[in-house]
Known about the structure:
The chain is mainly beta. The chain is built from two helices and ten strands. It has a single domain, classed as Jelly Rolls (Sandwich). It has helices at 98-105, 122-131, and strands spanning 2-12, 15-27, 35-38, 42-49, 51-56, 59-63, 68-71, 77-82, 87-94, 134-138.
Amino acid sequence: MVLWEAAHTEKYSHAQRWQNHLIEQVAPPNGESPYHIHDAEDEIFHILEGEMSFVSGDMTWKGGPGTFIFLPRGIPHGFRVEGTQPARGLLITTSGGFEQFVRELGQPMTELVLPAPGPIDMNAVMAAAGRNQIQILGPLPNYTI
């Protein structure tokens, strides 16, 4: 769940030169992303609460509060929430249009309360990913830290 987001864009002439996007994300225990590739942006995770593990190419990491993880564009990657507590963190993307992907899949919050975890509409995720230069490869591969 995205709690808030901010985007900053600077334009030089008529060409977009730099864009970064910041969201605060909360993921439930055992929540995970699909295995995917960003064609247009790098991701930087800063874990604030909970524990998460990450896979990127042939590398894996596990981290808790204070950990930063850099996931470069063009390399298959994903994450998983470890343990019994939700994970909360900041996700920074640069450059690209990741915020559009988030907006397409999200719903405005009416109160600052986590919704109950439910099924994910993978058809909607796949369609939004295709429109936003993200390749969904399937479920996360098995990995150990």
